[in-house]
Amino acid sequence: MSSTPPDRWTLTYLVPGMSCEHCEAAVIEEVGKVAGVAAVDVDLDTKLVRIAGSDVDSAAVAAAIDEAGYDALPSEAAR
Fold first, then answer.
1. For residues 60 and 44, what is the distance between their CA atoms, to the nearest angstrom?
2. Quick one: CATH architecture of 21-70?
3. CB 11, CB 62: distance < 8 Å
4. What distance in Å separates the CA atoms of residue 9 and residue 5, rounded to the nearest whole number?
5. DSSP for 51-73?
6. N or C: where does the chain have the smaller number of CB atoms within 10 Å of the terminal CB?
7. Beta pairing partners, 13
8. Is 22 helix (H, G, I), strand (E, B) or coil?
9. For residue 56, which of 48, 46, 64 has the smallest C-alpha distance?
10. Could you report the per-residue pLDDT of 42-79, keeping only the tens digit for each?
11. 3-class state of residue 78 by DSSP
12. Residue ranges per domain, the chain?
């Protein structure tokens, strides 16, 4: 995954259960495994997870966040 922020985020999710750096790392690790994901950004203050990539399956991303132990709500914010 790239550490350079993309010009545009593809998907944004609200993940209200995240509260610490461990949460952030778990979500980044699981979402990073999803096909097509190029970058993942987690903002613990806003509880937003932003994903960039091509042909990323939103259901697969939600399942990856669930696998990390958190509920994901699709969000139109900060896209």
1. 21
2. 2-Layer Sandwich (3.30)
3. no
4. 9
5. EEESS--HHHHHHHHHHTT---E
6. C
7. 49, 74
8. helix
9. 64
10. 999 999 999 999 889 999 999 999 999 999 998 864 44
11. coil
12. 21-70
